[in-house]
Amino acid sequence: MADSDKAVSSVSSEQDIADFIRNANSVATHAPRSGPAQGRIVFAMDATASRQPHWDRAAHIQAEMFDAVGNIGTLDIQLVFFRGFGECKASKWCRNAKELRDKMTSVQCRAGHTQIARVLQHVINQSRKTPDQPIDALIYIGDCVEEDVDALGHLAGTLGMSGTRIFIFQDGGDPAAEAVFRDMCRLGNGAFARLDGSAASALADMLGAIASLIVGGFNALSLYEKSKKSASIGLLTDQLRR
């Protein structure tokens, strides 16, 4: 990641790169490995200790959601996570959903405060660095908010005005966090939903809906919604069309 991006650091070491190349050669993907993408998504998650009690369940659901995004269109995806004492990292941009899925499921929780503002600023920085390849959507998974709410609202609004939609999936039922998350999604022209362990397939459907919107706009979203006939997709589309 370039020095101008002070929001997060890079996950990839020389060993990571070597592992990536080895795995990429052995895994078939739905999207072509080269050429222009139809969209770019940052997939971010809170990996602080408050999520540890349900982390195994959540990691499984997050992986299914990630696969759903990777199976629709030619999308470049970047994984971002934060945890511990100021640790906030980003993967390289990639179209190999399985590779990034494996990275995601290998992340372990560490005690620390939320760094949502840092994630939002990272997405802003990424779009500014490549104005011809803007970030179409930020998909964030978290359970709580421990930061200045007004600052988060300002950053979310900045993303919304730049064309980056914000989608948040909440793990848990903290009402204060839900209020903040919903406001961020409103400012970011996106949508809010709950991360429910009993509805992994429904969440995958919703991620597929987001990917369809990015690749083909509202017409593609409507076709996807009709093909799936899933009530859960309506939770997103109703918010997006307001």
TrEMBL record:
<protein>
    <recommendedName>
        <fullName>VWA domain-containing protein</fullName>
    </recommendedName>
</protein>
<dbReference type="InterPro" id="IPR036465">
    <property type="entry name" value="vWFA_dom_sf"/>
</dbReference>
